[in-house]
Amino acid sequence: MSADENQTDKKPETQHISLKASLSSRGQPQQIQGAGFPDLVIKVKKTTKLSKMMNAYCQRAGKSLNEVRFMYEGERLQPDQTVESLDIDDLEEDDEVIIDVASEAVGGSL
Amino acid sequence: LPPEDAARVKAILKDSRYETSIPGAAAANKDLRRLQGLTWLNDELVNFVGVMINRRSDEADKTGERGEGERRLRKAFVFNTNFFTWYGDNGFAKVKRWTRRFDTFEKDIIIIPINHNNSHWCCAAINLKLKRFEYYDSFGRPMPFVYERLRNWLTEEHRNRKKSEIDLSDWIDYWYEDVPQQQNVSDCGVFTCMFMESLSREVDFFDFSQKNMP
Fold first, then answer.
1. pTM: predicted TM-score of the whole model, two decimal places
2. Residue of B38, B52, B82, B192 to mutate for A, most A C-beta atoms under 10 A
3. What Pfam families does the record tag this protein with (chain A) (predicted)?
4. Is the model's pLDDT at B206 over the cut of 90?
């Protein structure tokens, strides 16, 4: 990385990121066409706790927090994590990060 | 259970605000209450077991202490319960980075808990040592599409990570005739957790049955 690039790297302290919470599987019967699980884009600071996005999503979807799972690249997200803690390479201002949404799943027999 | 443990379990089940978590998994009172009676298990519980197995396996990698005999710990990785469906619905790109923290082909076994149609839990595995695609179901029969999907994923994973084609012609689809069966219509989640636990060790048969289930 050149000295010039280092300079510009200093600037964006208030970097904003769009989180797109989106249902990842439409296969389950109660999720046909994502019923009750709309996509939601929310713009947040990198240092904002993910609970903000989670609560906003649940409000939009009319669900309670314990009915919905949020994941990034296969790992379950906790409310007190931030975008920064996700260790995403090359994040730039206004990038959109896809957050995978899943509903509770249960099973007992066929 | 010893009485003091039983008392603690009772207290936890009564405390509606109880929550427990380990990095990567959490379970609250309403999830744990599902462990009582014939209630169906949910994804939080199955994933909690998965994360515990992963942490134990990582720890064994560090210390080199794996135990002996059929209790010996394999180098195992358990995917979360969404893996199978999301890969099937969305293709390889969706799950491409899920294995970024380790080398899939250095593991002994990849364990894949599966939820079918939000009504049934069962467990598949890719046994890299024995070159087998395995499928364990406490209530069913071998399903061709499960083996096929595992095969496809491993092919794509190899292409992505190793930049070459893997030859799977001598890999077999494995079904175990005497796989423990549930005697009711609610316990497949517990059986699935037991399959996961057994598969994370060098167990070559399952020594549990409905009789062991509370």
1. 0.88
2. B82
3. Rad60-SLD
4. no
